[in-house]
Amino acid sequence: MTSARIIDLLRDGQTNDSYTLRGWVRTKREGKGIAFLELNDGSSLQGLQIVLPQTIDGYETLIKQITTGASIEVSGTLVESMGKGQRVEMQANAIALFGTADPETYPLQKKRHSIEFLRTIAHLRPRTNMFGAVFRVRNACAFAIHKFFQERGFLWVHTPIVTASDCEGAGEMFGVTTFDLNKLATSGKPVDFSQDFFGKPAFLTVSGQLEAEIMATAFSNVYTFGPTFRAENSNTSRHLAEFWMIEPEVAFCDLEGDADLAEDFLKYIFNYVLETCPEDMEFFQERVNNQVMANARKIVDEQFERITYTEAIAILEKSSKTFEFPVSWGLDLQSEHERFLAEEHFQKPVIVMDYPLGIKAFYMRVNDESASDRQTVRAMDILAPGVGEIIGGSQREERLEVLEARIRSVGLNPEDYWWYLDLRRYGTVPHAGFGLGFERLVQFITGMGNIRDVIPFPRFPQSAEF
Ligand code: 4AD
Ligand code: MG
Prior knowledge:
It is a single chain. The strands form 4 sheets. Strands 6, 11, 12, 13, 14, 15, 16, 17 and 18 form a 9-stranded mixed beta sheet that branches. The chain has a 5-stranded mixed beta barrel with strand order 1-2-3-5-4. It is an alpha+beta fold and 466 residues long. It has 14 helices and 18 strands. It has 2 domains: 6-111, CATH 2.40.50.140; 127-159 and 216-227 and 242-453, Bira Bifunctional Protein, Domain 2 (BirA Bifunctional Protein, domain 2). Helices cover 32% and strands 26% of the residues. The mean pLDDT is 94. Residues 381, 389, 392 line the site of magnesium ion. It catalyses: tRNA(Asn) + L-asparagine + ATP = L-asparaginyl-tRNA(Asn) + AMP + diphosphate + H(+).
């Protein structure tokens, strides 16, 4: 059972050739002795018009049963289309029905549905134009990411989902409970025996970085690409409880090299999506945000801005804009500050470097070459217009004693990090890396306003359907 993909026929299907297609009906129009269907199989934004003459076997019965959402198989000849906006259409000579979709109850009828409504039917929204485009672009981004790193000789390494360490030290981890549903306590509730299972409390990872560092100190250049979890109670358009992260880790690299890699990386992904998903990008431009194409071109063509945290604070302090949250050296940048810098001040991505030590994670390299009361670390964040922070990275502390002291000073126990310290004890090297939030990247490229609409099954507070 082989059938053609609609995208291939739209792009370079030969007229007068015969094909078999399978997919879901988007619309049906009936004329005298003829019907027109728009068929979509998910391979492209545009469906293929199918012309059904009434001479086809079973026409009378089938045409009543085939409504929006029905799944069908159709065979026929590809012909030049007289219709506007399509090169070809199919003149059908056989059709079969897999499943009907009762128009009384099927929610996706031919009209515009609000994005909020579609969020309540996450199991059906992939069949709409908007979510079709989002998930195709998401797929193209994932492929571009692997292509970028593989072409540069990076090894894709698989870091654990279940872990005992809190990489970011923010204490926002989901715990792993281990139930034996066959053993109920006297209360009738299942018994949690996680402690027995792992021997210590276990959590879902917030980042694969620490383990990626292990691999980088053996393979030089590595990257992770996997799910990460954060129990932040953030009900915003940029936070998820479960999101995907890409984390390259590079041995013999400093912060400047890290920033260069991140900039090349983002440019590469944008370029790839512009080349491979032109129709979907056009859709976002027309339906979501009329700046999408201009932004994308700018990412590819223009250099990112690079400033220090201290310079960022000075810009924010000088600006005439009133911010909700205070701006002062030593305080973290809030989303409104990040967006001001990227969207209004520079109007392009900004790489902010050298943040205060007090607001960053323990593993970042301390800038202590010159003594200063404004102690900073070799951290960088990349701020994107419309999204804010899209990448967070740093040069890592490679000096054993400095790292041990930092671990202690943030209240962690160096003994818990014995393996991490071993990397500094044996053959330590300068190294750096960063984390790209995959969903924030997809938001950035598509212009979609809410992060819950760029992942098929979003996880956020009070929501874990499916
Ligand atoms: O800045 P973060 O916390 O950095 C790290 O986890 C480092 N260990 C990365 C590294 O150096 N290897 O997270 C990295 C990125 C953020 O810039 C953001 O894009 C995304 O992950 N992110 C989230 N995306 C969606 N929902 C959340 N709750 C997110 N938290 C972080
Ligand atoms: Mg961050």
